[in-house]
Description:
Blueprint: E1 2-7, E2 10-15, H1 20-24, E3 36-39, H2 42-51, H3 59-75, E4 80-82, E5 86-90, E6 93-98, H4 105-116, E7 120-124, E8 129-133, E9 136-140, E10 155-166, E11 171-175, H5 181-186, H6 194-210, E12 213-218, H7 223-233
Helix pairs in contact: 2-3, 4-7
Amino acid sequence: MDGVYKFADKxxxxxxxxxxxxxxCKNYKSDGTPEFVIATTESDIExxxxxxxxxxxxxxxxxxxxxYRQLADxxxxxxxxxxxxxAIAVDNEAYLFTxxxxxxxxxxxxxxxxxxxxxxxxxxxxxxLIRIENGVATVxxxxxxxxxxxxxxxxxxxxxxxxxxxxxxxxxxxxxxxSVYIDILRQxxxxxNPEQSQFVLQSVDDLLKAVPIxxxxxxxxxxxxxxxxxxxKG
Length: 234
């Protein structure tokens, strides 16, 4: 099975064994000329299964992970990186929250949607793509969007990134990018190919120059969303 799709303003042909990925990507279809091709094998599916904590998912699910891995690798030279986080837009500006899995990123952005109502929508709730070009960062929705499937096929200017941690009292502070470099790098897909990984490392450097980084300590009350917004809006 194959199809042509557009992700982060790049057109890609995807060739798969299962139709799972093509159903996922239906809102990203393109009639343009592909810039590169992704093709998966049974071995790719089994490798993703071995890495996953969930072993009994359908083959198509694991194949979709293999596709996204290849996509992120292919996009690295175009200054686009896969980032693990929950991105929400308010008034056409995006705010990205990152932390280890289970910390509460999705819960926090749900508070933003409750606070801001129609002014807010999810860009991507799990693995957005970020483009850094000419000192400007843009976050893109993708169909790889977490268990709640929250995303839109949009490109939104990235206003800030917050590293989220739980606390009883809400607080936010801007931090020096160098002090959190490793934290940001850990949330970024780093290809195994040395040349591609160098592109990603350069993009992370550019991202930290383009976008302010914050540390957010918060509870799960709606005031946490207001604290975060006030601190990141500037």
